Amino acid sequence: MYPQSQVLFERSKRIIPGGVNSPVRAFSSVGGSPVFIQSAKGSRLVDADGRDYVDFINSWGPMILGHQFDPVIHAVQNQLSTGVSYGCPTEAEYTMASLITEMAPWVDQVRLTSSGTEACMSALRVARGYTGKNKFIKFAGNYHGHADPFLVKAGSGLLTFAVPGSAGVPEGATQDTLIAEYNNLENVRRHFERDGSQIGAIIVEPVAGNMGCIPPQEGFLEGLRELCDYYSAVLILDEVMTGFRLAPGGAAERLGVKPDITTFGKVIGGGLPVGAFGGKAEIMNVLAPNGPVYQAGTLSGNPIATASGIATLTYLKNNPEIYSKIDTTTAKIEDLLKARFSKKEAVINRLGSMISIHFGGGQVINYNDATNAENDRFNALFHHLLKAGIYLPPSAFESWFVSNAINDEDLFRLESGLESFKG
Ligand SMILES: *Cc1c(COP(=O)(O)O)cnc(C)c1O
Fold first, then answer.
1. Percentage of residues in the chain with pLDDT exceeding 70?
2. Among 29-33, 43-47, 232-236, which is the least confidently predicted range?
3. H or E stretch including 47?
4. Which residue among 25, 210, 211 has the greatest number of ligand 1 atoms within 8 angstroms of its CB, and so is best to mutate?
5. The pTM is what?
6. Percent of the chain having pLDDT more than 90?
7. Mean local confidence (pLDDT), 272-295
8. Check: CATH 3.40.1410.10 for 70-318?
9. Which of 108, 179, 247, 329 gets the highest tally of CB atoms within 10 A of its CB?
10. Nearest to 164, CA basis, from 181, 180, 147
11. Are strands 135-139 and 199-204 parallel, antiparallel or unpaired?
12. Is the CB of 119 under 6 A from ligand 1?
């Protein structure tokens, strides 16, 4: 079915661990071997054998405007003619920071990084440096990149401290990570009652997208805000996935919650490596060279990446109707899924342009629910749709990413694919 991809995968496995540069791409979760991509345009990916797919990965979010989007391509091409990297400050970085602080006005100051991982890692360091408190709360099933303190799994009880979730992460690196259940405010409150004087931050995905899509329940984010205010902790909204996707100002704007620090990634780079973290000036002022918290990056604010980010954010800012359009497209996808699977068979969670399906019925509001779902059935659906020319994220634990390039023909292909699914 995918002969050239298989050849490439076998070859890659010899000299790249697992054949991939990020584990989810290897299809370990859904089984089988990954389809290698040769090119992409608009809503479609083309694989190494020349077959095309409707793309619901969209580079895990960044390609919200579709592949080879003209303004982004032109911006990158223009920058190529003036140099690819200087390691010195540029006006483009100021322009990028202006766009972010305008679109997310609760961000007074922002620093650019090259990935979401770096943004989250740095945001935590800033929060700890600012408050002088080392413990922080993270939610089971939320993902904040692969820095050591975030790579945890819950111990025996949820209120025990976290244990490393990866080999190579020493216990010392996670001893200050407290795990709570998503959408469980009582759980968070109990952490504060016990360790309040030592908790410097809560980090949270305002709409969880790394255990499928799980929206926050009414009052959850507001409750986190109140607890942070009461205990003088910093509220870090990890908007790496939701930022510039759910609204120009991300989930904070859409859901009306005010973070102290926000992290960005994915859409902010329009497909090039960009991340950012920012927040109140008073907090950001602890960063070197102004303050004692060290953070740096040889390629941070790289001119090519920044050009792509500026073009993407500018387009989104000037065409805000895109958001309702992508939401409508995603609502149509929701309708197609609901037409094919009954409430008893599957839960379809959606907020804006984030959507996922968890088989098994019953509500999915936290990590436990997500792991209890019938994920084998998702895997069968994944492979069926792949054959039908639809590339879903290869894991039941990922949100689908919808782009503005998805059209009626793409939706029709999805509809036919769902209809012929026998699983
Ligand atoms: C993708 C993601 C990250 C990590 O970003 P990378 O660019 O992959 O390092 C962090 N937080 C969330 C919520 C993400 O979805």
1. 98
2. 29-33
3. strand 44-47
4. 210
5. 0.97
6. 96
7. 98
8. no
9. 179
10. 147
11. parallel
12. no
Query: Any idea where the domains of the chain sit in the sequence?
Result: 3-68+320-419, 70-318
Atom of ligand 1 at shortest range from CA of 241: 15
Each residue's pLDDT tens digit, 75-114? 999 999 999 999 999 999 999 999 999 999 999 999 999 9
Task: Find the 60 Cα to ligand 1 centroid distance in Å.
Answer: 9
Question: Ligand 1 within 6 A of 393 CB?
Answer: no
Handedness of CA 243, 249, 253, 258 (dihedral sign): positive
pLDDT at 275: 98
What does the pLDDT look like over 343-387, one tens digit per residue? 999 999 999 999 999 999 789 999 999 999 898 999 999 999 999
Whether 86 sits among the annotated catalytic residues: the reply is no
CB atoms within 10 A of CB 189: 18
Angle at 79 between CA 76 and CA 82, to 5 degrees: 160
Marked catalytic residue, from 135, 266, 323, 410: 266
pLDDT at 12 over 80: yes
- 262 burial (CB, 10 Å; 0-12 / 13-18 / 19+) is buried
pLDDT of residue 153: 83
C-alpha to C-alpha distance for 234 and 127, rounded to whole angstroms: 6
273 Cβ closer than 6 Å to some ligand 1 atom: no
Q: What angle do CA 102, 237, 201 make, to 5 degrees?
A: 125
The answer to whether 241 and 209 are in contact (CB under 8 A) is yes
Look at the block and give the residue holding tokens 């790394």: 210
Two tokens at 107? 């961000």
At the fourth CATH level, the homologous superfamily of domain 3-68+320-419 is: Aspartate Aminotransferase, domain 1 (3.90.1150.10)
